[in-house]
Design brief:
Rossmann fold, five-stranded parallel beta sheet, 25% helix, alpha/beta
Length: 343
C-alpha cells in the first residue's frame, strides 16, 4: 500500500466522529478496548459526534455486537481472511484504508504491544500526527481542539499536544489509565462490515507458529490487588516479603522506579508514569516514599495502604491507611494474618 501524501489543505469539517481501534485475540475483546470506549464516549459527547469502534478480524461472528453494549454508536468490522492472525502490515494497511475512506476526526489506539506497533504506521500511511502513550485526553471547550497529554522528560513534565492542521487527530492511550465503559444490556447500534480486500503482497511477515514459555506474565493492569516495594526494601532479597504478601492476597507484585533502577526486580513490575498505570481495588506501597511519577501511576486505586518508617513521606498524603514503622516487621505480620484468615 502506498503512503498517502500529507495534505496541508484539508478541511477539518470533512472529518467527523470519534473512533476507537479495538483489539481482540482469538475472538476475545481486549480490556484496553473497553477502556478506550469509556474515554471515547466522553470525547464524542463533548464534540456532539458519534463513537465508532473499529475491530479487525476474519471470523469474529457475533462478538462484534458486544461492543455496542459498551457505548459505541456503531461498529465497523474490518473483515478479511488475511486478518485471521495478527500481522503488522495487514492490520496497519486495513485500518489505514478504512480511515482514508471514512475520515474520522479522532482515532484512539491502545498503547499496548499491538497499538504501539500499528499506530505509527497508520499515521505515516494517512499523513497525520500521532501522540504516543497519553495519560489524559480532553476537548478544549473554546475551540474544540483535541488535547492529548502525556509524560515527557522521564515523567518529570506533562506535555499537552495538539494537531491543529492534519486529520484525523490520533493518539495511543496507556492501558489502565482510563475507566472502563459500563456494560449496558439494552444498548443498540449498527454493525457495518468493511472489506479492505488485502492482498498477499501487502503482508511480508507472517505468523508461522507460537512457542509457549514458562515465564510468568505480570498483569498489573488487570490486577485487583497490588503489593509494591520501593527503595525502603534496601535490597533485592527483601522483595520476598512483597511476593509473600501478594501471594497471600491473590495479587500481583509491583515496584517503584527506584527499585527497578537498582536492579532488584524486572521492569515489567514497575508502577508509575514511566511504568504501568494501575487502578486496583487495593494498592499496598511498602517502602515507597511517593515520588510524583509513582503517585501518578497508582493514585486511582480504590484503597491505598502505605507502609513507611518516614512519617513525612509524601505517600502518606494520598493513602487511605498509613502505617509508620519497619516494613521488615509489619509486612510479615500482615502476611501471617492474611494466611490465617484464608485457612
Amino acid at each position: 500500500m502506498q503512503r498517502a501524501k500529507v495534505n496541508r489543505g484539508i478541511n477539518p469539517a470533512d472529518y467527523k466522529d470519534v473512533w476507537v481501534i479495538g483489539e481482540q485475540r482469538d475472538g476475545v475483546i481486549g480490556a484496553i478496548t473497553i477502556e478506550l470506549l469509556g474515554e471515547g464516549k466522553k470525547l464524542a459527547k463533548a464534540l456532539e459526534k458519534k463513537l465508532v469502534v473499529i475491530i479487525p478480524g476474519a471470523d469474529l461472528g457475533d462478538k462484534v455486537k458486544e461492543l455496542l453494549h459498551y457505548g459505541a454508536d456503531s461498529v465497523i468490522y474490518v473483515k478479511d481472511p488475511l486478518l485471521e492472525k495478527f500481522s503488522t502490515e495487514g492490520y496497519a494497511n486495513a485500518i489505514a484504508k478504512v480511515i482514508l475512506e471514512k475520515k474520522p476526526e479522532i482515532v484512539l489506539f491502545g498503547a499496548t504491544s499491538l497499538g504501539r506497533d500499528i499506530a505509527p504506521r497508520v499515521a505515516a500511511r494517512i499523513g497525520t500526527g500521532l501522540t504516543a502513550d497519553c495519560t489524559k485526553l480532553a476537548i478544549d471547550p473554546e475551540d474544540g481542539k483535541f488535547l492529548q497529554t502525556r509524560p515527557a522528560f522521564g515523567g518529570n513534565l506533562m506535555a499537552t499536544i495538539i494537531c491543529p492542521k492534519n486529520r484525523p487527530q490520533m493518539a495511543t492511550v496507556r492501558p489502565g489509565v482510563m475507566e472502563k465503559a459500563p456494560f449496558d444490556q439494552k444498548a443498540s447500534g449498527s454493525v457495518e462490515i468493511y472489506e479492505p480486500k488485502l492482498t498477499e503482497k501487502e503482508i511480508r511477515a507472517k505468523l508461522i507458529g507460537k512457542k509457549s514459555t514458562e515465564k510468568n506474565l505480570v498483569n498489573l493492569v488487570g490486577a485487583k490487588t497490588i503489593v509494591s516495594g520501593g527503595r525502603g526494601l534496601k535490597k533485592a532479597e527483601n522483595f520476598k516479603l512483597i511476593e509473600d504478601l501478594a501471594e497471600a492476597l491473590g495479587g500481583e507484585v509491583g515496584a517503584s522506579r527506584a527499585a527497578v533502577d537498582a536492579g532488584w526486580i524486572d521492569q515489567s513490575h514497575q508502577v508509575g508514569q514511566t511504568g504501568t498505570t494501575v487502578r486496583p481495588g487495593l494498592y499496598i506501597a511498602c517502602g515507597i516514599s511517593g515520588a510524583i511519577q509513582h503517585l501518578a501511576g497508582m493514585s486511582e486505586a480504590k484503597y491505598i495502604v502505605a507502609i513507611n518508617k518516614d512519617p513525612g513521606a509524601p505517600i502518606f498524603k494520598v493513602c487511605d491507611y498509613g502505617i509508620v514503622g519497619d516494613l521488615n516487621e509489619i509486612v510479615p505480620a500482615i502476611t501471617e494474618a492474611v494466611r490465617k484468615r484464608n485457612q
